[in-house]
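Tokens in:
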């Protein structure tokens, strides 16, 4: 959808006003051709789709509108289907041709509104409707969004699990363009391909406190490849709670807990001893699991242990927790003696368990351990800087940072 400035009309009005002064009326509201009721532009444009003869358009072919009258030009085209999905397109500089740049959906009804302008600047309008045929392939790509609907912390990524692998870059672009995430208030965010079947979405910064986040798929009926079409997907809605960030300084043996930017507690802790160092970096709380049995076999530790642990908060899939550790209270605040978890007294652990939520941030600094991997062991998404995160997108990788695809779509001007 594009709009070309009416340069000739504006210049004409300017010259006329300069020549005639205040008495000029040719470009006033009564004489201005742009204020006239739009005429039917059916004879001025040509359309490459079906024209009411019962046939259906091939969704594999781009939509094209051309100006047939040499004295008229196209000024704007808006095309969308019955569900409200817009078709993006490009208008030539001379206004003689518009063509779609995003795929049409199969088995859908489209309404196309075309605006034109004749040599005198008078506006024309033409509304076209057509249906597209059903997909020829039986294979469908479905999407499952995560997490489950509910309330989460500011670090929670949105996940999209695909039913089939997508490897080709151009096909990934089709999929990614159809996966929409909208936040109130708005954020600058992007998708990142974790692998061929999974994408994560996160904002440039943490989600705003109190935000409402919705994810949906517009893939239904969209062709991805010759034998693969988009299927239906259940939308997702989550809300974001307070900004709770727990920062553990492993060398100082202390955790500082922040809520909405204010320190609300400082807790003496113990982290991983040599050989079992706690991972550095930002970790998103995966679950509050309460009472958990932890054994040396679960992490391959050489020294045997088998413990029932309370107030356990999971931060990695491999078994790193923040939990109560009554056996190490003498070392908490002074030494690192754990097998990689962050331990604290039962009282502090109970407070932490009641304070923390899924999606909140647990960050470890000044540990001798490696930095948590971005993917594969929970949500280490925030350990990628924004440039590298955008580099995992099929749409914005290598492009200058700016409004994300969703925000850009909202900012794009539409003709009235």
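Residues out:
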């Amino acid at each position: 959808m594009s709009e070309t400035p009416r340069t000739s009309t504006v210049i004409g009005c300017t010259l006329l006003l300069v020549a005639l002064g205040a008495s000029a009326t040719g470009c006033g509201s009564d004489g201005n051709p742009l204020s006239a009721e739009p005429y039917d532009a059916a004879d001025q444009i040509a359309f490459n789709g079906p024209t009411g003869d019962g046939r259906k358009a091939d969704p594999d072919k781009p939509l094209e509108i051309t100006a047939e009258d040499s004295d008229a030009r196209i000024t704007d085209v808006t095309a969308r289907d019955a569900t409200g999905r817009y078709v993006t397109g490009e208008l030539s500089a001379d206004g003689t041709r518009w063509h779609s740049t995003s795929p049409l959906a199969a088995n859908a009804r489209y309404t196309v509104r075309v605006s034109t302008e004749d040599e005198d600047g008078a506006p024309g309008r033409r509304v076209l409707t057509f249906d597209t045929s059903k997909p020829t392939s039986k294979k469908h790509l479905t999407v499952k969004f995560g997490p489950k609907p509910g309330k989460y912390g500011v670090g929670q990524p949105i996940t999209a699990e695909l039913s089939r692998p997508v490897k080709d870059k151009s096909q990934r672009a089709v999929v990614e363009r159809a996966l929409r995430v909208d936040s109130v208030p708005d954020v600058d965010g992007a998708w990142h391909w974790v692998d061929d079947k999974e994408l994560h979405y996160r904002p440039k910064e943490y989600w705003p406190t109190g935000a409402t986040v919705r994810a949906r798929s517009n893939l239904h009926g969209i062709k991805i490849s010759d034998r693969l079409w988009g299927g239906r997907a259940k939308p997702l809605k989550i809300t974001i709670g307070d900004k709770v960030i727990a920062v553990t300084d492993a060398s100082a043996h202390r955790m500082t807990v922040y809520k909405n930017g204010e320190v609300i507690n400082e807790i003496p802790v113990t982290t991983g001893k040599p050989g079992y160092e706690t991972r550095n970096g930002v970790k998103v709380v995966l679950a509050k699991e309460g009472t958990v049995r932890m054994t040396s076999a679960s992490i391959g530790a050489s020294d045997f242990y088998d413990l029932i642990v309370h107030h356990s908060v999971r931060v990695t899939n491999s078994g790193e927790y923040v939990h109560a550790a009554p056996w190490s209270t003498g070392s908490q605040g002074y030494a690192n003696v754990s097998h990689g978890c962050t331990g604290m007294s039962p009282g502090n652990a109970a407070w932490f368990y009641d304070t923390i939520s899924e999606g909140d941030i647990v960050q470890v600094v000044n540990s001798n351990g490696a930095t948590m991997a971005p993917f594969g062991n929970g949500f280490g998404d925030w350990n990628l800087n924004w440039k590298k995160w955008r580099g995992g997108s099929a749409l914005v990788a290598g492009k200058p940072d700016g409004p994300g695809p969703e925000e850009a779509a909202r900012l794009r001007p539409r003709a009235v």
